Amino acid sequence: MKKQNKGITLIALVITIIILLILAGISIASLTGSGLFEKAGEAKNKSLEAQEKENTTLKEYEDTVNEYLENNPGGGSNLGEEIKNVDTSITDPVSAMPDGTKEVIEGDANKGIVIKDSKDNEWTWVEVPKTIFTATESNQYDTIKADLINYVTTPTNYRDSRYEDEWYALDGSTLVNERTTNLTEEQKKLNNGCGLTYYEYKENYEKMLSSVFSNGGFWISRYEIGDATATLNNITRTKTSGITGEAVSRVDQIPYNYITCSQSQILADRMNPDANKTTSLLFGIQWDLTCKFIDEKEGSVITKGDCKEWGNYANSSLTLSRGMYNTEPNSSTSIWKPFNEDTENYVKSSQTSSNISYYQVLTTGASEQTNKMNIYNFASNQCEWTLEQYMSSSTFPCTIRGGNYALSGPDSSASKRDSYTVSDIFLIVVSPRATLY
Hints:
The protein is α+β, with helices and mostly antiparallel strands and 437 residues long. The protein has eight helices and 26 strands. The strands form nine sheets. It has a six-stranded antiparallel β-sheet with strand order 1-2-3-7-26-11. It has a four-stranded mixed β-sheet with strand order 24-23-21-25, with no helix packed on it. A hairpin with a 5-residue loop joins β2 and β3.
């Protein structure tokens, strides 16, 4: 039998093509009649409109970000243009400004650079020349520390070897510190001494050293930390009620007082305007660096010895320009009075009334006489806590600096140290001052 060839004939192929064309025509007609092409066109137009709207929104966001960056020193801020008389190879305050800085209040380095942060707190730049460092990297902490100590001890020594920047706390009634033998992890978690745990202290100290090295300085609160909830006239107390109020560095505030070192550290920490930075009480070396800075800029050594010409001491007379004063700081019923109630427009820190001797404490920035390089009341008014430890006593490990209104200038200079207990807050008025790094 012959094998039959199976295949498609030319006629069948033509018929198939004709049928497909007819079906295609019907489909196109159906699609056209349903408006599918019109809908597809509308969808395309809407997509283009959405893209255009998205581009417009992104442009608005970009403009907002650029506007923010112009006022943000970390992003090429034009605030840096307001800073003058600064050699950035020596010191660079612009690079150390916190994010969101609102304004430069004083841009002249010869007067003391002052900024206002996003919380409306004011900070003054303390210059530490980069040229003093033998360290070459920002993590060479021991070398940076040694460089700073050498700087503040040459040629005028602001240090006291009995005081060191070291962590300490109370374990029950026992004082523990960095040098304690077999220090346990539970002890390292204590913060009832200087207000920081062992690890927090170490982290903050190293961060401060690194920042000072990299930026050639640090920020210090322009004023003693004030209680923004206690500024009413005729307030019938001088003692601040704990640390529940707002912590600020602003003019015309009642400084926090009668608080411990650990409470003061909590207040300093609250002032932080930038999550990438740290605020704390000053370490001892920072207080010494501030003394050095003031003395060199003012042209003479004025933070050692008798500071009565610019500090609120018992033997001082200060001209007031604003704010309030309190004539019996140790009395819970004494009131704060506006300076204009004093017809002579000045107050003597030590006066006598009805055969009772008393002193006067001032609100922040009340007298321009206390202003040195745009830092107010660095000498006296109230003693101030630092994060250094008095190494010679387990009973008095806390350190206070600068003296207060009840002492005389020669006896209590701005650079002076004294020791104090961890918990007793009723014998002397001590306030906090913060640093930002």
